């Protein structure tokens, strides 16, 4: 079977709550892509994700949307085929990724999320599995190749600017958590709607995970316990033996108000 008269599924490479991920071949160009498959009987997340990717088109570090359609009883979305997730990178380094590599990744993560925010979107599910490595076209073949970072999975993303007022959306208190408990900010644990600051706080938790191989609340059995540990542990302990600039960034992000615009250049300079 060909999807959209172009894509032939090759092998399953992943899965999630939404459905399955396959590598696929464009039979016209021989290009290999990734295809997300979601049964139409399930809650529709792919239509939203495809729409977000279209609006983020052209941002370095955002995979290109190649195709979206519902030709049969499944929804299909084709995007660039990428490499390893940062979770896999961490495992490959036996948990602790060298700080020079983490610095390179961290700067790219912030640059990508800055561009996403500037297009009016909050990601809302920042975590190691949602950052992927890929070839860096700016790297010289004769030099050490450096991985380029890509941000994926925009199924939970939303705009933070109200279409009617053209102002920042008002904060809505919630009973549930939006995102992955291990990586969300204390603000989100407390029921606040995620905003720009919270994407960045989640990136700092990813940075800690890459450097140390684990987070202090790894073994916590519930979101409530994760929140309790986050609230009791001192930032100085969280960032112990890490570059001092990282602690300063984290404290700055935690001091931000809900609608406040982050100082991205200040953050990048101190990573």
UniProtKB/TrEMBL annotation:
PROSITE patterns named among the record's database cross-references: PROTEIN_KINASE_ATP (PS00107), PROTEIN_KINASE_DOM (PS50011), PROTEIN_KINASE_ST (PS00108)
Positions of the Protein kinase domain: 7-271
EC category: transferase
Molecular-function GO terms, alphabetical: ATP binding; protein serine/threonine kinase activity
Sorted UniProt keywords: ATP-binding, Nucleotide-binding
Enzyme Commission number(s) from the entry: 2.7.11.1
Alphabetical list of InterPro entries matching this protein: CK1_Ser-Thr_kinase, Kinase-like_dom_sf, Prot_kinase_dom, Protein_kinase_ATP_BS, Ser/Thr_kinase_AS
UniProt protein name: non-specific serine/threonine protein kinase
């Amino acid at each position: 079977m060909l999807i959209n008269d172009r894509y032939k599924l090759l092998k399953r490479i992943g899965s999630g709550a939404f459905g399955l991920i396959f590598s696929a071949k464009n039979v016209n160009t021989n290009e290999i892509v990734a295809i997300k498959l979601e049964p139409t009987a399930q809650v529709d997340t792919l239509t939203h994700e495809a729409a977000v990717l279209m609006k983020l088109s052209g941002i370095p570090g955002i995979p290109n949307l190649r195709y979206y359609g519902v030709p049969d009883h499944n929804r299909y979305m084709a995007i660039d085929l990428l490499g390893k997730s940062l979770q896999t990178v961490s495992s490959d380094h036996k948990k602790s990724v060298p700080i020079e590599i983490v610095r390179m990744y961290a700067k790219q993560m912030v640059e990508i999320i800055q561009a996403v925010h500037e297009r009016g979107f909050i990601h809302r599910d920042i975590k190691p599995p949602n950052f992927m490595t890929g070839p860096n076209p700016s790297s010289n073949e004769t030099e050490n190749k450096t991985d380029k970072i890509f941000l994926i999975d925009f199924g939970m993303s939303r705009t933070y600017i109200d279409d009617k007022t053209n102002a920042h959306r008002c904060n809505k208190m919630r009973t549930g958590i939006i995102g992955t408990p291990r990586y969300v900010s204390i603000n989100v644990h407390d029921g606040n709607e995620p905003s720009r600051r919270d994407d960045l706080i989640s990136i700092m938790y990813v940075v800690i995970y890459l450097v140390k191989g684990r987070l202090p609340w790894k073994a916590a059995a519930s979101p409530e316990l994760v929140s309790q540990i986050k609230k009791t542990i001192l930032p100085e302990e969280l960032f112990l033996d890490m570059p001092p600039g990282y602690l300063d960034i984290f404290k700055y992000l935690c001091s931000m108000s809900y609608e406040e615009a982050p100082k991205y250049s200040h953050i990048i300079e101190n990573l």
